[in-house]
Amino acid sequence: MTEPHHAPQFKNPDHDLLTPREVAQIFGVRTTTIARWAREGRLAFNRTPGGHRRYAASAIRRLMSEIAAESTDDLRIAEEDAARLYDQGWTIRQVAEKFDCSYGAMRRILQRHTTLRNRNGTR
Predict the structure, then answer these.
(1) Which residues contact 87 (CB under 8 A, 6 or more apart)?
(2) If 22 and its partner were Cys, which of 18, 70, 83, 112 is the partner (CB 3.0–4.6 Å)?
(3) Which residue ranges make up each domain of the chain?
């Protein structure tokens, strides 16, 4: 059995440089994704004298923060969409099924975004 991969510990976060393979392992993606992010400017890099890309720990942390913020935005939008469907007359169960979510979890989400109807349909 193999041991789980742990992100490398950075001795000097501003000067440690990682290979594309190491960065790919940290993000759980392929090295081609790392190269694309570098081409798109999402992940800053340095070049070795041989022309290979190396990535600073600070650039990796910056991209991790951006990805986390994007995930938070996506979640907020999905919750607002669920509340909109509920406000249009969908039941909690219907909204939960639409979002592949349990009834209880969807009820808690909707309580944060709207006033829930009682059993006879009034608020």
Answers:
(1) 114
(2) 18
(3) 17-113
